[in-house]
Amino acid sequence: MAKTIAFLALSLLVLTLVQAQHPVSRGRARSRARAFIESQCETTLYSTMCVKYLSPYVASFTKTLSHRQLAQIALKVTLARAESTQAYITEVAQRLNRTKGPESRSVRECLDQINDGVDQLTKCIKEAHHIKEDGGSSSSDFTWHASNVQTWMSTALTDASMCIDGISGRAIGGKMKALIKARVLNLQQVTSIALALFNRFAARFRAAHVVKP
């Protein structure tokens, strides 16, 4: 009886120790992922914003975060910001729908640019999934997919810039102009971050797999 109790006690102790190790392991993985994000964000133009938007995803990683994964996360964050901006400007456009003045026209033109940007970013995410982590893509496949992503992201960045230029150059009320510009400028910055991180991933991929640009 005493041996049985001792065995059960030992088993319980071992189980407790094993369970206690998991949170520590996950915590270390999150710390490494956080440190990786901070180091990669330093290479972007908006490092503080980069860390702010990407660090919430740390908790979902229990292993080392890769450049490819970080680039994909940044793309998804950018699309989410684009869709949020799209929804806001759509609401503004609907409120101005009955007017035919410069405000309505300028907002509609801006919305057209943001709509195109959302389409471009959606294609980027789909295209990025074709790029394999372990170099499984051939040189031609990688070049094709990476080039598409970079081109479409650059187009989305241009779309945001054109919207801001259009809003700035038209007779739009001060508060409305400020709100739209703030949202689109944020989108432009997040897109810039995502493009920088994808370019860094693509450069490392080419170097590791000797892929010619």
From TrEMBL:
Keyword NADP, does the record have it?
no
SUPFAM superfamilies for the chain? Plant invertase/pectin methylesterase inhibitor
**A Pfam family assignment:** PMEI
Q: Give the Pectinesterase inhibitor domain ranges.
A: 32-197
Keyword Signal set for record: yes
Judging by the UniProt lineage, the source's domain of life is Eukaryota
Per the UniProt entry, the signal peptide is 1-20
InterPro entries per UniProt? Invertase/methylesterase_inhib (IPR035513), Pectinesterase_inhib_dom (IPR006501), PME_Inhibitor (IPR051955)
Q: Which GO terms describe its molecular function?
A: enzyme inhibitor activity
Keywords recorded for this protein, A-Z: Signal
Protein name, per record: Pectinesterase inhibitor domain-containing protein
Which species? Salvia splendens
